[in-house]
Amino acid sequence: MPIVAPSLLSANYINLQADCDMLNASEADWYHLDVMDGRFVPNISFGPMIIEFFRKATTKVCDVHLMIEEPEKYAEAFQKAGADILTVHYEACTHLHRNIQQIKGLGMKAGIALNPHTPVSLLKDVLADIDMVCLMSVNPGFGGQAFIPQTLNKIKELRNMIDEKGLKVEIEIDGGVTLANAKSIVDAGANVLVAGNTVFKAPNPTEMISLLKKI
Ligand SMILES: O=C(CO)[C@@H](O)[C@H](O)COP(=O)(O)O
């Protein structure tokens, strides 16, 4: 069964408590929390203060995806806010290994996200040091975009790299995940499905989460 991580970017911010209550009572495994700075991506979302709210609202894993420049400046703030997994972008880190050391040193799990154009082979020398790879299956910044099909080949290549080394690294797919493509994503070798619009715009979000769990 895949790990299902609804992306709160698509939640209703006028009544967040209701969406948190729904997620908490659902089969969702993680909260996926997208932090955007208006520099690394052309959108601005929220920061540690809001993550702290989510931390208090749930006992589920808080999976924090930093779409920001200079993530090292903020890693400690996100740890204090309650992040369990902290994912930084390969493209935003000049000293990626140092970023990983920092995140792990702060007691969080470390994830690396790759934009659609970034090859998975670039992770060869850090794969053993990380807990998760987040493959962006849309260009980051906005919910509700269409899944980029080439991602399936990237998943297969990454799955081979991980299995060849005998590692336990989660493969998370982020962007455009639907009930129609979720099975092909999992069959290709991914085990974490992020879903924003598919969950929060569904007539019955709780049922949609259960359907994604069962694909
Ligand atoms: O990080 C991002 C977008 O940059 C994602 O987490 C989206 O929030 C996913 O939304 P959907 O494509 O599932 O609607």
Give the quaternary arrangement of the chains.
Answer: single chain
- Amino-to-carboxy terminus distance: 8 Å
The strands making up the biggest β-sheet line up spatially as 1-8-7-6-5-4-3-2
Principal-axes geometry comes out as globular
> What is the second-level CATH architecture?
Alpha-Beta Barrel
Q: From the helix content, strand content and strand pairing, which structural class follows?
A: alpha/beta
Number of domain units: 1
| H and E string | EHEHEHEHEEHEHEHH
Q: What is bound: which ligands?
A: 5-O-phosphono-D-xylulose
What fraction of the residues are assigned to beta strands by DSSP?
15-25%
The gyration radius over C-alpha positions equals: 16 Å
Supply the CATH superfamily name: Aldolase class I
Task: List segments where confidence is low: pLDDT < 50 over at least 5 consecutive residues.
Answer: none
Active site: 34 (proton acceptor), 174 (proton donor)
Cofactor: Mn(2+); Co(2+); Fe(2+); a divalent metal cation
Binding site for substrate: 7, 65, 141-144, 174-176
Organism: Lacibacter sediminis
Summarize the structure.
With 215 residues, the chain is an alpha/beta fold. The chain has 8 helices and 8 strands.
Write the layout of secondary structure elements.
Layout lengths: L2 E4 L9 H10 L4 E7 L11 H10 L3 E7 L7 H7 L3 E5 L6 H10 L3 E6 L17 E5 L14 H14 L5 E5 L7 H7 L3 E4 L1 H4 L4 H10 L1
Parallel strand pairs: 1-8, 2-3, 3-4, 4-5, 5-6, 6-7, 7-8
Helix pairs in contact: 2-3
The structure holds 5-O-phosphono-D-xylulose.
